[in-house]
Amino acid sequence: MSENNGVQLQMNFGKNTDENKFQKQVYSAEFTILFELPAPSADAELESTLKRLSPLIEFINSPKDLPCGIAFTDSNPDFPSYPVLDFAAAVAPDHRDSHLIYLSGRGKDEETIAGFFAQCRLEGFKNIVCVSGRPSLKQNKRVFESVKMLQMNMEHENPLFTGAVVNPYKYEICTSIAQSLHLAKKARAGASFAITQFGWDAAKLQEIAWQLDRNGCSIPLFARQMLLTPAAAMELCSGNYPGVRFSKNFQSALRGEMQLSTAQFLAAQWKRFQLNVAGARFLGYSGIQIGGIENLAMAKTAYQMVQESFKIFPAKQDWLDAVKDYYSQMIIAPYPWRYYLFDNLLQPDVSREDANVSREPIPEPISGEMFRYKLAKILFSQSHLHPAAERRLSKKLIVSCKGCSQCRLPLAQFQCPEECPLGFCNGQCGEVDVSGKCFLSDEECVYSKRVRMAVALHEYKFLEETVI
Ligand code: SF4
Ligand code: SF4
User: Fold this and answer.
1) Which protein residue has the closest C-alpha to ligand 2 atom 6?
2) Mean pLDDT (whole number) for 1-13
3) 3-class DSSP state of 71
4) Mean pLDDT of 227-236
5) 451 pLDDT exceeds 70?
6) Which one-letter DSSP state was computed for residue 197?
7) Mind listing the pLDDT tens digit for each residue in 64-93?
8) How far apart are alpha carbons 30 and 287 in whole angstroms?
9) Options 3.20.20.220, 3.40.50.300, 3.30.1330.10, 3.30.420.40; which CATH number does 2-354 get?
10) 188 alpha carbon to ligand 1 midpoint, in Å?
11) Which residues form ligand 1's pocket by a CB distance below 6 Å?
12) Domain ranges of the chain
């Protein structure tokens, strides 16, 4: 790690990065700004979209003190968007190694994923962020998990530079652990960097970085920032943004800002933005990804705000004092969920080597869980090697078998992966409710159960290594 005036950035030596600008920036610890650009809706007029975006693209590509790039994302699953790779190819005829393309597993299979990777190589895009993707609630709910995409990529003779995403803003004990173990699994499967969900709690940004370190798979991290409009702030406060929750206190602050003039509302957003950006830098993040940028003026202001934040907070202590002051009247964590994996986060002169693990006990398996696990282990220890229909009735009685075509029980701690409505086998999705319940049902997320079991059995490999 490089260390300079309280700034620590993850570095990674010994890799040949000559031909990939973004990768080179990541490995040489250059704080990088990624501007998020969602693909337009499928029926948008591409030519006019390109014309509208051209000044913005020109600005992003122009030489500047801080390296910049574009993160091409696809948009709302319920509103089909222009294929993200085609959009990126149209928008970025050059500088393609500065940019990232999000690959969503929504509605994809192995063949389409392989095709996407091949097309990226052909087109000269080198940096991909693999996400399982939020399923369309109107269509088939299944997604192709990101960890499998990462693994597929690494098996290729010419792998692309791939990253993953994580939602560190979880405040319930089992979900906090499940998220960090899932990211550890992605790192082991080939993610070379990760981008967080957006949020404002700097302690959570530090927590995920420390936890990755403890898991022995530290990778460079990018903190996603979101520039809010009053309408977006309203959506957030109404709880309409899956996976993003914060306290009533913080909601009141946002609602208060919505009552102000537009200029005052924006000033409040930029102030919080600068605090977050400085935090990301001082916490060792490799850069930020900014969402909500709609035009050249916003991009220019954002860039300027980032630069300014470096001057406003020249040392880590300045930033820590400002955070303490800003949030002294405002807790961000949503009551009653206030769990942090470490109890000395955001302390002066404390580095990840000095991290104190929280002493809050992890809940034990609840009544019957351990019994069912032991019974399933005796009866179904080879079930992944036999036809799925074999012993269907006993599987139904003991592990609530849903009757899929390929049994994976022994690889999933004898917890049927089909219990997850998305069929996730490899880790918890980022949209799990803050209470630990599944965001698609009123049941506890299957990964919270698996965390309890893993802790009780001291057996973490299924959650942080095994890819199903
Ligand atoms: S993985 Fe689950 S649904 Fe599939 S056969 Fe095994 S127990 Fe049944
Ligand atoms: S069970 Fe958990 S991982 Fe599956 S969809 Fe629900 S919250 Fe996400």
Assistant:
1) 438
2) 45
3) strand
4) 90
5) yes
6) P
7) 999 999 999 986 666 778 999 999 999 999
8) 8
9) 3.20.20.220
10) 26
11) 388, 395, 399, 401-404, 407-409, 416-418
12) 2-354, 369-464
